[in-house]
Amino acid sequence: xxxxxxxxxxxxxxxxxxxxxIKNHYETVKKNxxxxxxxxxxxxxxxxxxxxxxxxxxxxxxxxxxRHSSS
Length: 71
What we know:
mainly alpha; APC_suCDC26; Anaphase-promoting complex subunit CDC26; mitosis; coiled coil
């Protein structure tokens, strides 16, 4: 006997509500994780909107200087 794949997938309202609950749970977990990261790196990352690269360069004392083209 050959088993056939289902021809349609039925979506119930209970499935939608379960999906919404799980999605909200993972969003809160993600927000908590981001807040922990922000609190962890808070003193390093000022609200001056510095990029990660700028923070690292500042920490190691690197001051990038543009090269002048000699033409």
